[in-house]
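Quick one: sequence plus fe (ii) ion SMILES, need structure tokens.
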Amino acid sequence: MPVTAFELPERHKYQNGFGSYFETEAVPGALPVGQNSPQKPPHGLYAEKFSGTAFTAPRHENQQSWLYRILPSCAHPPFTSVADGPFKSDKPADPARLEYIPNQPAQGIGMYIYTAGKSMDNHSAFYSADGDLLIVAQEGALDIRTELGWLLVRPMEICVIPRGVKYQVHLPSGPARGYALELYQGHFTLPELGPIGSNCLANARDFQAPVACFSEDYGATASEGPNSYTITVKFNNSLFQTKQPHTPFDVVAWHGNYYPYKYDLGRFNTIGSISYDHPDPSIFTVLSALSDHPGTAIADFVIFPPRWLVAEGTFRPPWYHRNTMSEFMGLIAGDYDAKKGGQGGFMPGGASLHNVMSGHGPDANSFEGARNAELKPTLVGKGSCAFMFESCLMVGVTEWGHKMCRKVQEGYSDESWGGVKVHWKRPESATVDVHPPN
Ligand SMILES: O=C(O)Cc1cc(O)ccc1O
Ligand SMILES: [Fe+2]
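Reply:
Sure thing.
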């Protein structure tokens, strides 16, 4: 079920819809009427175009918003490199001979597990120039102040912060943990529904965009006043910083279809087999980032929410498989029916990576359980939700992910599948030709 609603502050009002064209003003009359860039925008605001696709992208893909703000984003001193940041790429000068290849636009995805113990301060903001960030909250709420307004993202909710949107994260319920997927190309879409029809899975009306909300701390010009606001940017996987005298959260009104949004996973309308066999998990896709090849995603965000299993004569958990796509899985709450938990099991906050063509499936205990289970209608995953980032790209793991995090579970393969039993019984009537001899 959806996350329980409680009284939200005024700033947490939302506009509902996916890929919609919204308009919102925190002060009446702040949006210009009938044009985007009047000679003098209302209330002395600056008009700023914010594009999420190339200007000439086809209409159905085009994403942009117009922001009406107290000062334009360009009003800041130069950025300098953050040499000791986590994405450090600075190297001392050396006499090596170098040749340069032409720059390629970033492609693909990045996957992260985050933990946070303290809120960002009111004078800090961050943005990624590399891609859109899909955040999966697992523990602790994130109250995210963005240039376009606030999003409260609680466990069992997700949000997407598009490339370039500045934001500041607060932790209203204490320490937070979760997962994120950074998409370096394109944007997320809702999956096609095909014969399912015009509703189900994630419905467009359940996506929520913020309303405009601004603060007023500014110097009269870009260079006036103490440079007390720190802006950090992730640019080509390196961090850079600048300080400016005015708040970046000064957007009084905006309109457009390029904006951050959130979604409550409890609203997902899950579809499954009502006859037999286990369908492909693509029926659980919430959001998809398409490649140029139809049906093959750069990234799919797939969830495994509580659902009724009724398939007859069927091995109900996921089958054993090797997948041409890579599968990164996480557990938001509860347990997962292919890995029943306990010692060496899949735990909330944990993750697994089954890369391209790496064989996997239920662990031996889950397999034996499901093989012998009575096939009555069963609610699986009550109070639980696993998810998967699935990609057509092979996934590399950083030094941090391999070693430095010291969280890689020893013996995972053996504990999961070392104990799978042979159930093969050769029929006595069968004649077999075993060659070469063992
Ligand atoms: O590997 C997994 O647990 C994820 C998964 C679930 C499923 O129902 C079918 C295929 C699949 O990869
Ligand atoms: Fe899988």
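Residues 214 and 250 are 5 Å apart (CA to CA). The longest strand covers residues 109-116.
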